[in-house]
Amino acid sequence: MKQIVFILLVSSPFLSFSQEEKSYSYIQADYFYGNILKHNKNVGHFLTNHPTGFMLSWNKKTTGKKEWEHRYNYPDFGISLAYQDYKNPILGELYSAYAHYNFYLLPRANKNQLVLRAGWGIAYNTNPYHKVNNPKNVAFGTAINSSTYFKFFYKRENIINRIGIHAGLTFIHASNSSFKSPNTGVNVWATTVGLNYNLEDDTDLKFSPTKKEKKYSTKIKYNFAFRFGANESDFIDSGVKPFFVLSAYIDKRLSRKSAIQFGADYYVSYMLKDYIEISHILDENYQTGDFKRAGLFLGHELFMNKLSVEFQAGYYVYYPVEFHGRLYERLGLKRYFKDKWFASVSLKAHAAKAETVAFGIGVRL
């Protein structure tokens, strides 16, 4: 439930616009057919057939009324709903909802377009793990999961009146991000084809001329963040336990769009405490030690209006117990309030192994 509330919070800027100004929007309907990727040695028994599904989306066009729209070549934003049949009785089906952006890779005046879409949301799995009824579903330990998707496609609008076509490739990931074990998640690559329909006559659609921006520079900023959440160790039914992360870092804006970061994280994870204790019970020779960790990281932040996307790559300098390796990465979405305070949701992982989804608050001074 906390995931749903937060996603609605950070997605609210997608859905707000002035009713006094004329808006341009369109809907898309897609069918997709694909393959489950074997990203983990434990998912081989899922590769029995080809997943299929469909996606419906509503998209609002931007025209350059705000400065950030110029910088990103007048993107669209919207919401999308998807249904996915894994064609495997163990995995069941997936129903999902997302907030998304469409980024155009060619000049917006072109009739033929190449588009990259990124979507973030939640998903419901119809047949999650159950130790008696469905013990082989190691992909989904819970019915409610997080999901992301990326879609690269060709689009042509207004071929027959307001109807157009599009086709491309889609990648869909779903998992509970180690909130509860088991949790290998499922990754699907798919080909997609569909129709689009403009809800308004866009023959008078005009994009505001791109303004030449002055060189942008700011002083180094100091950031402090507190993140929290809960997760379970790899031992099934060992219990969901809280974790806390304190982060301090500096950032330097390279432009209006991006900034680089350098900082430190301090992790307190009670899941890791359980993992150490259980591992020692199962193997007396297993290493024991502190369940806290500290790391240094480098990062990059991409700013889009009041939203930003950040990626950080870190290395544990305090690492008393072996657990998925010293290297880690974090991918997060932030929402700024009055250019100083921010709320965030982020995924922390070790390569392909997700460890946590964290919710956070912070300040940038």
Task: Report what the structure shows.
The chain is mainly beta and 365 residues long. The protein folds into two domains: 197 residues, Porin, CATH 2.40.160; 144 residues, Porin, CATH 2.40.160. Helix content is 9%, strand content 53%. The strands form two sheets. An eight-stranded antiparallel barrel has the order 1-2-3-4-5-6-7-8. The longest helix has 14 residues. The protein is flat and about 75 Å long. The chain starts with a helix and ends with a strand.
Question: Helix and strand layout, with pairings?
Answer:
Layout (H helix, E strand, L loop, with lengths): L1 H14 L9 E12 L15 E10 L5 H5 L4 E10 L7 E12 L7 E14 L18 E17 L2 E13 L10 E13 L22 E11 L9 E13 L4 E12 H13 L9 E13 L2 E12 L8 E11 L3 E10 L2 E12 L1
Using the 3D structure, state the CATH architecture of the largest domain: Beta Barrel
The number of strands is: 16
> How helix-rich are the residues, as a percent range?
under 10%
CATH class of the largest domain: Mainly Beta
Main sheet: strand order: 1-2-3-4-5-6-7-8
Q: How many helices in DSSP terms?
A: 3
Distance from N terminus to C terminus (CA atoms, Å) equals: 31 Å
Count of separate structural domains: 2
- Please state the average pLDDT score: 91
Instruction: Sum up the overall morphology in one term.
Output: flat
Q: Low-confidence parts, pLDDT < 50 over ≥5 residues?
A: 1-19
Kindly name the structural category.
Answer: mainly beta
